[in-house]
Amino acid sequence: MGWLLKHSHFRISDGMAIKEFRQIEWDESVEDDCRQLVRLSIREDLDRLYDWTSVALVPDGTPGEATVVSRQAGVVAGLPAARLVLEEYDPRAAWQPLVADGDRIEAGQPVARVAGAARSLLAAERPLLNMLGHLSGIATLTRLHVDAVAGTRARIYDTRKTTPGLRRLEKYAVRAGGGWNHRLGLFDAILIKDNHLALGATTASGRRYTPAQAVAKVREFLEGLQPGDPRLGMIVEVEVDTLEQLAEVLPAGPDIVLLDNMQPEQLREAVARRDAAHPEIQLEASGGIDLETIHSVAAAGVDRISLGALTHSARWLDVGLDWTA
Q1: From 284's CA, which of 75, 184, 190, 215 has a CA 20 to 30 Å away?
Q2: What is the pTM of this model?
Q3: Helix, strand, coil % (nearest 5) of the chain?
Q4: pLDDT tens digits, 163-175
């Protein structure tokens, strides 16, 4: 069951142990997700048949070699995914990466070489480039945001605003770009948002929970679990949109408070209130933040900035396949 997974770990910041979401690295679970997606992409491209253009024009067994080249400067991500694409089309094809995920690359820079049966390379070309271009686009946009907050304490986090089925891969690309992963899914942490309260979660008296009451209720739920239950370590985060709500919720002891759509001056006041009373609680800013405003948000002193745009608005990095004569 999903809740048997380890939900968080700790890192040290300013001498304090801070709970952190699980971070996505390339591992068996990411590779398994990727392989399933690649097989779906093969089905939609070939429909269990053949690339008839190549069958008509390229003699069976003709060898081919090509270089994968970036047409734009950016940050590369998805090289292991591209390898899997090639492997699923033809296990005998050779894949040689020339850079590593997370590397900055220049326009015109080769990133990998491929070799094998020409028919296989022609069939794999578009899915391979689609995967590499999409993930590299996310890594490139993430790096722009990470660079924009350099010199502040803020870390850049993604969200669950991901392409259905691609979440682990897209979050992996955020990591390649220097960003941090927020929760992987609903199973991975407790995040009390305004809709949980607006939809009528009520106290025994029949009144809707305030954010502080909701945190207390969640803590009660967690404390009722058996010792050793991995869910005991889940991060508890709560969303607020006013400084008054923040003042009420801090004593309830969430791990993170999400400050929704606050202006920099409000964020500075929120940080001051947190620092004075509960410095162990992390503050996360979100909502309406872009590359033009992100530095002022970070300069307010928040610990985290989460942006859906990292995954839902990233433009693909233009990569192409150049055949070797």
Answers
A1: 75
A2: 0.93
A3: 40, 20, 35
A4: 999 999 999 999 9
